[in-house]
Amino acid sequence: MSRYFSSFFPDSSTHRLVAAVFFIALIFRLAIFGYLYFTLGEYHGLAWVDGSQYVALAKNIASGNGFSESSVPPFLPHTLRTPGYPWFLAAFYGAFGNFWSASLAEAVLNSFVPLFIFWLALKLSGNSRIAFVAGLLTAVDYHIAVHTLTLNTESIFVFLAVLSAVFIFRYIEKPDILKATAIGLLFGFGALTRPLLYYAFVPIFIFFVFALRSIEWRRRIAGAACFLLIAFAITIPWMYRNYRVSGEFTLSTLGWFNMYTRMAAMVQAAASHQSYTESLQVLVGGLNEGGYISRADEHELFDVKFIPLLRERAIEILKAHPRETLLVQINSVQTLFTQDDLLYILNHSHLLPDAKRPPIPLSLLVMQKGVSAWRDMLPYLKGQYLIPYLMRVVWIVFFALAVLGVWSLARSGEYKQKVMTWFLVALIGFIVVVSLPVSASLNARYRIPFAPFYFIFVAAGMVHIFGRTHKLALKTGTHTV
Prior knowledge:
Layout (H helix, E strand, L loop, with lengths): L1 H7 L6 H26 L1 H5 L4 H12 L21 H13 L3 H10 L3 H13 L2 H13 L1 H6 L6 H20 L3 H17 L7 H10 L6 H30 L8 H18 L3 H14 L17 H14 L1 H17 L3 H7 L13 H8 L3 H5 L9 H24 L4 H25 L11 H26 L5
Helix pairs in contact: 2-6, 2-8, 4-5, 7-8, 7-10, 7-23, 8-23, 10-11, 10-22, 11-13, 12-13, 14-15, 14-16, 14-17, 14-19, 14-22, 17-22, 21-23
GO molecular function: pentosyltransferase activity
Organism: Candidatus Sungbacteria bacterium RIFCSPLOWO2_01_FULL_47_10
Keywords: Cell membrane, Glycosyltransferase, Membrane, Transferase, Transmembrane, Transmembrane helix
């Protein structure tokens, strides 16, 4: 084990930094797990957001009822969620009869993610300070820590995505079929966990073929083809299963549900000067009144038979409001980079009582009213409701640092380092675009799949500024020892 560790971190001067990052990440995650589980219990403490659905699927898998969310027979086949994470949970439930063991394993597993980020940052920059800061930011980010140990797909998706990036850099350094195979396996199982990686298969193939100019043409084609065949071989059987069940050849039938209940609902809210919740109620209620569904509950729309209807209605709303559609897209992008959920996490964990919130959040209110929206917000900007706005300033600063970090890394280093830098930038951009339909519902959770990579650039920007400030202090004689 120590030999393998030394092969990743051959410079002994970094070993203490690496160990510090790992133990900080582990202690932070175990502390959060301990509080959530022992204070709130397994279900309320650990089954956040979509956790209840994954728990239901895992129980049925472990009990031999198939991939179904039904609690009683007949166990109807489920097509919205991908099977990767339910299979993971089912293994723990089958072995131990509980889900807290899976959460504890996730806490330990994801303590290695900051180490992978340390390694990537060190490879990209050759600077141990950048690597340490990137690893530390990943270790202590409460969004990553909470959502990778609660019962949601981020728990294993982030680990698979970051490990994939490690193997991709290894492949750039020295390509071979074995590494291409490993990348194909990681991307395939990653796509079975969250479908967004499926849409990256072809771009990754193109990257392997055209970006690695130092590699002989035939070897590029062979490696890229190996990756693509393995990734598709893992995902296509599940897509065929969904086709047999629902008539949709897809990893998940969640797409148009999200477009209607998230994107279209937010566009409608911006156009009608309603809150997002009110807009969603109107859209779902309209389907109920039209006789399409039996009750005004969005969960009834999970049935695959509603996909054509949801597609038609969503496109109709987006076409009817092009200005609001564009504004919602722009707002979704800034949300992904600057939204902060610390207050939500503290409220959900019962560490703070629920704050008094405005009926319409500021970002949506600005789309509706422009600058005058601040007048409506002033009565709420006090006490704990200041937390998201203060933290938003931090994330805006982080964004500026990340842009600076990309610039500093892209203009220095060897060709392979620059290739990987732009690959990670493109990967972040890709995840942002694919996440737009759901990120309209304003949640920092959707930043988590790219947040570890993002922290590499934030760290590079921080160290770049500190280095320039340090040099300036030395020149002006203001530096003291």
